[in-house]
DNA sequence: CGTTTTTGACCGGCGC
DNA sequence: GCGCCGGTCAAAAACG
């Protein structure tokens, strides 16, 4: 995104929020080559001239898309700030009544012996659902105040359901390009996942796999992975909740570099060959990942030329925008850089500085 | 032998 | 109330 944004007068904020310029060398590859899966096409010699033209066209298109994303991002950031201040007020107001327990109860809620059959679980279920999903609001974007509100409202009965509906764990969707021949529903995102179920859903012949974060037993994050009904080369990963821990310690730079150094991390899915284009796609606050995600989505959008319908493309695009916005606004460093850059820019443009 | 995956059964929500 | 459906459990199997 960098080159275009920096060239826009309205957006030339010279933001340096960690996006490595080196990642640019990857982008044209993913953009120019529409990620054709057929190997015979893959082996065709590149024709330079049309390639350049296609590149330029693609670049323009991406530029336009980036502009929209940037606008969306600005809007989201503004909304985020508004929500944050709102939340701060709520916390300040509700701090006296709801101090503590809800945020500390997430650890025990996922005990292995949890059983739904037992009727007593109803008691815990009444208290748990709202609170357990939001362990920490550290990264922002979620609804930490919601748990408290939930509990408060639950006493009155009906509003509980609606509020719980609104305060569901943050859900983010991710579209990852996957080899159709690879039947495993594995989306490598740097975390360790344990599959706990698989189900064939009504609207999609492809089974949906359910994963839990296995790195931290108390981690509330869940992941659903299912192939897109429109294009089975696309894996749709739906993340619910947020990790209450960092990335798994081994191979800290797995995604920024090549991932070949992953020892225990890769051991989670050893059989799967490393696929840089499909790996590292998690809504975590790492800019390279974001860039990677964009490549993935772009690749997914242009798979084989046109297999993904316009509606699907639109959907993917929208999700990409949401995801980027979420990822960026969740990143404190990005926010800090944004604030710094914006304030600096505003001061700079202000005719009456003094 | 410990961990992960598979898979059928179960549970609860929701629409009719 | 009933049936459908998505999500989860947990025993068994597979794997390293």
Describe the secondary-structure layout.
Elements: H1 2-7, H2 27-32, H3 39-42, H4 48-94, H5 101-104, H6 121-132, H7 144-154, H8 158-166, E1 171-177, E2 193-200, E3 207-213, E4 222-227, E5 234-240, H9 264-267, H10 287-301, H11 310-330, H12 332-349
Antiparallel strand pairs: 1-5, 2-3, 3-4, 4-5
Helix pairs in contact: 4-11, 6-7, 7-8, 10-11
The chain binds a DNA duplex (16 and 16 nucleotides) through residues 114-117, 194-199, 201-202, 208, 210, 214, 222, 224, 267-268, 270.
Short note summarizing the structure:
By secondary structure, the protein is an alpha+beta fold. The protein is 44% helix and 10% strand.
Walk me through this protein's architecture:
The structure is a single chain. The chain has 354 residues and is of the alpha+beta class. Among the domains are: 56-89; 171-240, N-terminal domain of TfIIb, CATH 2.20.25. The chain has helices at 2-7, 27-32, 39-42, 48-94, 101-104, 121-132, 144-154, 158-166, 264-267, 287-301, 310-330, 332-349; strands at residues 171-177, 193-200, 207-213, 222-227, 234-240. The chain has a five-stranded antiparallel sheet. Helix 4 crosses helix 11 (310-330). The longest helix is centred in the N-terminal third of the chain and has 47 residues, at 48-94. It starts with a helix and ends in a 5-residue tail after the last helix. The chain binds a DNA duplex (16 and 16 nucleotides) through residues 114-117, 194-199, 201-202, 208, 210, 214, 222, 224, 267-268, 270.
